Amino acid sequence: MYDSRLNELTEAYGEYTMEQANLDWYGSIKKQGIDYIKELSYYDKKAIHNLKYFTWVEQQGKDVEELNAQWYDENYWEERFSIVSEWDKLIEEFNEKTGVTI
User: Fold this and answer.
1) From CA 47, how far away is CA 41, in angstroms rounded?
2) Interaxial angle between packed helices 84-98 and 3-13, expressed in degrees from 0 to 180 and rounded to the nearest 10
3) pTM score, two decimals?
């Protein structure tokens, strides 16, 4: 989760404690049955990835090369998530400009 989102939740609900983590774990996460979980094979993962073509390329107008990079480039996701703090700053700036700040 983004640091900014964690800060918002902390402000709204207080510090996330070990007690709350235990309540979350035993109260809902641990109770999830196998009907909510699927262990994916390589081919399952590839099929799900290929379903992104419609939203990624056709709807959002992204390059198919970038979609392929998500699957084939070993550094793609690491590079994307290495700039999360920059994304947080841009989101905060945008929210301030639009008056959406919480």
Assistant:
1) 10
2) 60
3) 0.49
Quick one: average pLDDT of 35-45?
A: 91
Q: Tell me which DSSP letter residue 21 carries.
A: H
Q: How many Å apart are CA 12 and CA 45, to the nearest integer?
A: 36
Q: Which position has the token pair 């983590």?
A: 21
Look at the block and give the residue holding tokens 């309540």.
23
């979350």: which residue's tokens?
Answer: 24
Non-local CB neighbours of 49 within 8 Å, separated by 6+ positions: 70, 71
Paired tokens of 102: 């919480």
For residue 4, count CB atoms less than 10 angstroms from its CB and return exposed for 0-12, middle for 13-18, buried for 19 or more. Answer: middle
Here the tokens at position 38 are: 């699927």
Kindly list the domain boundaries of the chain, sorted by start residue. Answer: 1-37, 39-102
* pLDDT above 90 for 21: no
Assigned token pair, 22: 């235990």
